[in-house]
Design goal:
mainly alpha, Fumarate Reductase Cytochrome B subunit, three-stranded antiparallel sheet, single chain, about 675 residues
Length: about 675
């Protein structure tokens, strides 16, 4: 009885409990003072949310699981949002207490997209100043880094709606950064700290986390004394998260691998794998295809996908019929490491010496020729013979020759357009060009069709000559080393010597016959190119077939030879060949002989005086005279000619840009 009496009288002699002493689940009941929004301070909010253990039941009564509403005031003060007010984020709170209804989701994205380095007041002052001096008041504030990262997030797969709950994004800001305790990424307390990312990302990506923990990256992270290691954000970035199979993700992850494995990335980008993958190829090996994505192991680890025991199986994921010799291919072979890849080093250096030698000789030849021709014509002061109106025209090329030249020109330009896009895949123009073809797979098909056309033109020409000279004439009437033959002869050497003497003003220009030494170089260069580019191209095209007969490193050599020879072709065809036939004084701006098939006789006398004299002396000149081309034929020839030359120069420009950016080998 005394105990009951004590409990009854106790409230009469004690003061009411303070707000801090009131149980959290009863606090809204005891608060009878309403605070309007304009008067609410952070302290008012922390009166409730600052109490440890402050929570509300998730069900209809207090026995259900509780949802914590506690906010660590000290951590909030130290966070990146420490200077903000509670109402700055919780905009829908109009008064305290706010016990009815559910608060709206805090809109981090909209707020961060509005962040700028200049204050609103400064922007207004700048625009007023612009208006005063007559400029349009349209100053654009400078976005902050947070602003740019938020834009990346908004475009990412994380910001897309969930399939099961479209009203929510796949990953909200708070899931990666926290809510009130948001620290800088450099702060070890931050959820977004790179060392925290595996566990944070693993909340959703459980399988990836399990694989990562046993990988070389995860194991090293657990043993920091072995050195730094890659975490989720290092490979996938923090905000530019796209679909795993998307092109953006593949490029980003490939680049991020190179942050630690720079040499491996450089050699990968030199390979067909890297070039096609960068351009968007889907059925081509990326880093994670060979090394696994999350369960990456050391090469020496028997469980590694690229260990000697597993390498053939890994290769067969793409190359179904690969043999053991196929695995001798160097996926990261490069031309810079003689100790590891002496065969590649020697082939590359030999090809580079060839390129330098050819370009130095013929570029020097062209510059000397231009200077001498320009000085001579300036001194003589008359029009070149190609500009003379002569009713008599000399048939220089028959229609089969011209058709073959057209097939060669179009196929070579197509090969350059599609092939150099792959060789310089990471240049500033390659991706835009390959998109014109509808993707790298389509570009590869077009490249191979052009290759067939090129080889058809070359081999078809050889077959036609064989039939004409061997079967039809049986070799009796044709002089194999005569003036009408394209085989090199002693006169070519003397003509070249005399041409250089003329360049330096030491003698007259030689009297050329039907074929000059530079024309023979162009002619035989096609066969050299067809041999090197054709053989290497076929090896790469049918790699699985040839892999049964050759070791895999042959394809590394084929890749180097194919690319360097193509570069040499571009830099000679679209510079030296264009100069010799179109750009030198006397021919500029265009020689239409390969389109209409004929020169006027005055041009024949000037360009090939020995050929003209020989035909006159033999009395056979009249046999080669044809009517001059019509005006319509001339117009069409000029349109087609300038189009081809313009496209060739464009290709040359693209290759030069790629060369400056990446180099040759």
């Amino acid at each position: 009885m005394i105990n009951y009496l004590f409990l009854f009288l106790l409230p009469l002699f004690s003061s009411p409990p303070t707000l801090a002493e009131t149980p959290p689940q009863e606090r809204f009941i005891t608060m009878d003072k309403v605070i309007e929004r304009t008067a609410i301070t952070n302290s008012d909010c922390m009166d409730c949310h600052g109490v440890k253990g402050y929570a509300i039941p998730t069900g209809e009564h207090g026995e259900t699981p509780k949802k914590s509403l506690h906010v660590d005031g000290d951590a909030l003060h130290d966070s990146v949002h420490g200077k903000l007010t509670c109402l700055g984020c919780h905009e829908d709170i109009q008064r305290l207490p706010h016990r009815k209804g559910k608060l709206q989701q805090v809109d981090c994205v909209t707020c961060h997209q509005q962040l700028q380095k200049e204050s609103e007041t400064l922007v207004t002052e700048i625009n007023q100043g612009r208006a005063m001096v007559g400029l349009i008041p349209s100053f654009t504030p400078t976005p902050t880094k947070t602003h740019r990262l938020t834009i990346d997030y908004a475009k990412s797969i994380h910001a897309q709606p969930r399939k099961q709950a479209p009203q929510r994004p796949n990953a909200e800001c708070k899931e990666c950064h926290g809510t009130h305790e948001v620290f800088s990424v450099t702060d070890s307390r931050a959820l977004s700290h790179r060392l925290s990312s595996p566990e944070v990302c693993g909340q959703c990506h459980e399988k990836a986390l399990a694989e990562y923990r046993i990988s070389v990256h995860g194991a090293t992270l657990q043993t920091p004394w072995k050195g730094d290691s890659a975490t989720c954000s290092d490979c996938h970035s923090a905000h530019q998260i796209s679909e795993a199979q998307g092109l953006t993700a593949r490029r980003l992850i490939t680049e991020n691998c190179g942050q630690c494995h720079a040499e491996a990335l450089a050699s990968y980008m030199d390979s067909y794998h890297g070039q096609l993958a960068w351009l968007g190829g889907k059925k081509v090996a990326k880093c994670h295809d060979c090394h696994s994505d999350h369960n990456t192991r050391k090469v020496s680890d028997p469980a590694s996908e690229v260990s000697p025991a597993n390498l053939l199986t890994t290769c067969r994921d793409c190359h179904k019929t690969a043999t053991a010799s196929f695995t001798l291919f160097h996926p990261h072979g490069n031309t810079r490491d003689f100790d590891k890849y002496p065969d590649l080093w020697l082939v590359a250096k030999g090809m580079v010496v060839l390129v330098i030698g050819v370009l130095l000789f013929f570029y020097g030849h062209s510059m000397l020729w231009f200077y001498r021709s320009w000085k001579e014509r300036q001194h003589l002061g008359h029009l070149p013979a190609s500009h003379v109106q002569d009713p008599r025209h000399f048939q220089r090329f028959s229609w089969p020759w011209r058709l073959n030249h057209w097939l060669l020109a179009l196929s070579v330009m197509t090969l350059v357009f599609t092939g150099m896009t792959a060789m310089y895949a990471d240049s500033v123009w390659a991706v835009k060009v390959v998109n014109l073809f509808g993707g790298p797979e389509n570009a590869a098909v077009i490249h191979r069709v052009a290759a067939v056309a090129f080889l058809t033109a070359v081999i078809g020409h050889v077959v036609a000559l064989f039939y004409k000279l061997i079967i039809r004439r049986k070799g009796g009437q044709f002089r194999w080393f005569g003036p009408d033959s394209l085989l090199p002869r002693f006169k070519d050497a003397t003509d070249m010597r005399d041409q250089f003497r003329w360049f330096f003003g030491k003698g007259p220009q030689p009297r050329f016959d039907r074929w000059t030494y530079w024309e023979k170089f162009d002619y035989w260069a096609v066969y050299w190119g067809a041999l090197v580019i054709g053989v290497s191209g076929l090896l790469l095209w049918f790699s699985e077939f040839f892999g049964h007969y050759f070791p895999g490193w042959v394809f590394n050599i084929a890749t180097v030879a194919h690319g360097v020879e193509a570069f040499l072709a571009v830099t000679t065809l679209f510079v030296v060949h264009f100069f010799n036939n179109h750009f030198r004084p006397g021919k500029f701006p265009l020689d239409t002989v390969m389109f209409v098939g004929s020169w006027n006789v005055a041009e024949l006398q000037e360009e090939r005086p020995a050929n003209y004299d020989r035909l006159v002396q033999a009395g056979t000149l009249e046999q080669y005279l044809v009517p001059p081309p019509s005006r319509r034929a001339n117009v069409i020839s000029h349109i087609l000619g300038f189009t081809l030359i313009g496209f060739g120069l464009l290709l040359l420009l693209l290759v030069v840009v790629g060369f400056v950016q990446k180099g040759l080998v």
